[in-house]
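Let's sit down with a protein and look at its sequence and fold side by side. We need material for that, and I hope you will provide a protein of your own picking. Once you have written the record down, we can walk along the chain together.

***
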Amino acid sequence: MRTRLLLGAVGVLAGAFGALRFLQLDFPDIVNAVLWLAGGVALHDAVIAPLTVGLTVLATRVVPEEWRTRVTVALIVLVTVTVTAIPVLGRFGARPDNPTILPRDYLAGWLVFAAVVAVCTLLARPVSQRLHGGRRKRVSRSPG
């Protein structure tokens, strides 16, 4: 309980610090930040979430039942990060006269990320079985 309170207090202090710093911005910067945040919420709700849910539903129809949970988690992570990373993957905003803008090979980074997600998906069940000694809790599903 003490740890939760401490973590909560740290979170509240961090939020208060962020709010204080935010309110120290000039008014046009505050307006731009609010518009950017609202656009992010709208983009998430209109594009990212439906795309993630749609691809997950399609994938779980062709994936064996024992893999569905792991594949669902992997797709939620992968699709969300991929859609969010489209601007850097497409190198939108890169300029030849300023090589410090988008200076990395972001596609290679995304491929490494996708590989890590795939490996974690493959290892999730064996690691879980090893940690739990092969026991699995079965959740009974009651109608209604």
Notes: Helices lie at 2-23, 27-62, 68-89, 106-131. The two ends are 35 Å apart (CA to CA). The mean pLDDT is 88.
